[in-house]
Amino acid sequence: MQCAVIEFARNVLGFSDAHSVEMMGSTTHPVIDMMETQKNLTNMGGTMRLGSYECKLIKGSKIFEAYGEEFIKERHRHRYEFNSEYLSQFEAAGMKATGINPNSNLVEVVEIPSHPYFVGVQYHPEYRSTVEEPSPLFVSFVKAASKIK
User: Sorting pLDDT into bands at 50, 70 and 90, what band is 8?
Assistant: First the structure.
């Protein structure tokens, strides 16, 4: 998701220096920024956003179709998130936030509804995925890809 957001900001929104502050702290368009809860920490050890967090999916979105439910829980491991200060610009240009953490309002899922299947997630669907029970996100991606000739 983070790479997709950076690419969209550069090539659709026209922010040529858009970046993540993790890799370029001097960017004037920090579309991926350190989480507010992380900014004042001086000892980073063991402070990442780790574990399972709830996400509310927007009905009618591809991610909602994949999971078939409004609330999901997925695992995370990160310090950097979508910078919500840019959300209205992204949404006006066609990239929608379709999954939001209901407690912190962090953007967890982005989509481009006009695209056949453009879904990016902040969480790690591979953490819970197994051969016998693959992530709904992976299943929906394979189904969408199989429809393209």
Answer: very high
